[in-house]
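User:
Care to share a sequence and C-alpha cells?

Assistant:
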Amino acid sequence: MSDSLPETEQASRSSDRVDPDFLAYDFYKSFTSLCMITLGGLLTLSETVFGRDFQPWQIIAVCLPVAASGVIALQCQTDMVQLAKGVRPRSKFFLNYGLRLTPSLYGIGIGAFLYILFSSMLR
C-alpha cells in the first residue's frame, strides 16, 4: 500500500483552498450589511424603547463609529473590485488597515451603546 494519496483526493484537497482575497471580500460584504442592520436597530431602540434615556449627542456618539465601520467596509469592498478589474485605487490605506478598523469601530459603537444603556438603567 502506498503512503501517497490517490490522485482524485489530492486534486480535491488542493481545490479546497480558498483564496484569502475572496474571504476578505465576503467579510467586507457581510460587515457592511451587519452595520446597516445594527444602525437600524440602534436608531430604533434609542428613539422608541429607550428614547427618554438617550440625549441626541449620545445617539450620535453611538451611531457614528458603527456608520464609519460600514463605510470603511464598503470602501474596502470597492477597492478590491477595482483591483480585480485592473484599476488601481487612489489609496491603499483602507485595504491595509480595513481588517483592523472595521471591527474596532463597530465594537466601540456597540460598547458605547451598552454603556449608555446600562448606566441609564442603574440610575
Summary: Residues 56-84 form the longest helix (29 residues). Helices lie at 7-15, 20-47, 56-84, 93-121.
